[in-house]
């Protein structure tokens, strides 16, 4: 699923897939500033930088959701956002994503609900309330 998404959905806020091989190795574009969670933990980002990164993420998600076959990521979190040299946010890790032709709004709500319940289940399983 991840390879399909990354080859079909090209956008400046989605990590670029450079290549892959049959041994399930994916090679992504290099994001020299690492993952967003690392920068949020040490408070190195200004509020202006945080706002820009948030807008980048929203722009990428809008692109994914806006096509005839929307991609629902289902695992957006700071560790799945990479930052390049210019601090542009790149959405990554499409392992849980779903590509679906949405026939109506009920389809979208069911997908979103299943993703939410999956997150709740993982948190409950880990003992987080």
UniProtKB/TrEMBL annotation:
Q: Which domain of life is it from?
A: Eukaryota
Q: Which SMART domains match?
A: TyrKc
Query: Start and end of every Protein kinase domain?
Result: 1-129
Species the sequence originates in: Helianthus annuus (Common sunflower)
Keyword terms of this UniProt record: Kinase, Receptor, Transferase
Listed GO cellular component terms? Answer: plasma membrane
Q: What name does UniProt use for this protein?
A: Putative tyrosine-protein kinase, non-receptor Jak1
Q: Which GO terms fall under molecular function for this chain's record? A: ATP binding; protein kinase activity; transmembrane receptor protein tyrosine kinase activity
């Amino acid at each position: 699923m991840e390879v399909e998404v990354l080859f079909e959905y090209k956008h400046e806020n989605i990590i670029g897939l450079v290549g892959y091989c049959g041994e399930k190795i994916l090679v992504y574009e290099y994001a020299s500033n690492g993952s967003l969670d690392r920068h949020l933990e040490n408070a190195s980002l200004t509020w202006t930088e945080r706002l820009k990164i948030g807008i980048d993420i929203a722009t990428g998600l809008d692109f994914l959701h806006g096509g005839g076959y929307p991609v629902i990521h289902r695992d957006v979190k700071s560790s799945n956002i990479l930052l390049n040299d210019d601090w542009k946010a790149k959405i990554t890790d499409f392992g849980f994503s779903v590509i679906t032709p949405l026939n109506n709004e009920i389809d979208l709500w069911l997908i979103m609900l299943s993703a939410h319940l999956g997150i709740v289940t993982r948190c409950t399983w880990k003992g987080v309330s």
